[in-house]
């Protein structure tokens, strides 16, 4: 069986980055959305990127970003991929990929089967799809709230793009999530925190161990 890859998102400090590296996750997420409790600026992004080196792939998380923000964050964070977590259309996603010449991960919020089907719209506009739980209309954040959706919606999914799963994943449920969906990548943020935006090294290790044991 292929190994499910792991992304730990919303890292904000050197200490928690070290925990991610020690746990041998394949991806780390740097959040550039100003309203998020996990937001980092260019200086911290540069510091974390320097500390990470080439040991792990660095994914920048953005919500409807303009090109100026993307350019500054990509440079500071030495990003390996761009994750779009807003209302970006296929056209905007394709334009970002063309301009910055980096893989684009498009987040598709899910609450029903129709939402899952929307992923096909990005076949020519993204390199990877990340299915996440759809947040309430009045929510200030598009993700990272510990919400999950009905994983059976992804059962037997056939998609032209590789895809992964996010939304409410923790060490306690990630094995079930992998078994239910067959996701090739799992992404967690709040599931490895002791408080919003505060990562816990033990929870990071437990999550990665649970994925590898699944």
Automatic annotation (TrEMBL):
CDD domains: PRAI. Residues 6-209 form the N-(5'phosphoribosyl) anthranilate isomerase (PRAI) domain. Its EC number is 5.3.1.24. Pfam families: PRAI. It catalyses: N-(5-phospho-beta-D-ribosyl)anthranilate = 1-(2-carboxyphenylamino)-1-deoxy-D-ribulose 5-phosphate. It comes from the Bacteria. GO terms for molecular function: phosphoribosylanthranilate isomerase activity. Pathway: Amino-acid biosynthesis; L-tryptophan biosynthesis; L-tryptophan from chorismate: step 3/5. InterPro entries: Aldolase_TIM (IPR013785), PRAI_dom (IPR001240), RibuloseP-bd_barrel (IPR011060), TrpF_fam (IPR044643). Keywords: Amino-acid biosynthesis, Aromatic amino acid biosynthesis, Isomerase, Tryptophan biosynthesis. NCBIfam families: PRK01222.1-1. HAMAP family: PRAI. Belongs to the TrpF family. This is N-(5'-phosphoribosyl)anthranilate isomerase. It comes from Qipengyuania qiaonensis. The lineage of its organism: Bacteria, Pseudomonadati, Pseudomonadota, Alphaproteobacteria, Sphingomonadales.
């Amino acid at each position: 069986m292929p190994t499910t890859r792991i992304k730990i998102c919303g890292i904000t400090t050197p200490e928690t980055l070290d925990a991610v590296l020690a746990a041998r996750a394949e991806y780390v997420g740097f959040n550039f959305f100003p309203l998020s409790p996990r937001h980092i600026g260019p200086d911290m992004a540069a510091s974390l990127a320097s500390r990470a080196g080439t040991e792990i792939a660095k994914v920048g998380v953005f919500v409807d970003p303009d090109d100026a923000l993307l350019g500054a964050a990509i440079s500071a964070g030495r990003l390996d991929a761009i994750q779009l977590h807003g209302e970006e259309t296929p056209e905007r996603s394709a334009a970002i990929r063309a301009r910055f010449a980096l893989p684009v991960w498009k987040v598709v919020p899910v609450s029903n089967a129709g939402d899952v089907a929307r992923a096909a719209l990005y076949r020519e506009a993204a390199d990877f799809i990340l299915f996440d739980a759809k947040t309430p209309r009045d929510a200030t954040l598009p993700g990272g709230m510990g919400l999950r959706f009905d994983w059976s919606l992804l059962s037997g999914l056939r998609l032209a793009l590789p895809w992964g799963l996010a939304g409410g994943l923790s060490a306690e449920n990630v094995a079930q999530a992998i078994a239910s969906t067959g996701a090739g990548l799992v992404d967690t943020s709040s599931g490895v925190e002791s408080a919003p935006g505060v990562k816990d090294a033990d929870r990071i290790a437990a999550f990665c161990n649970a994925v590898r044991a699944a």
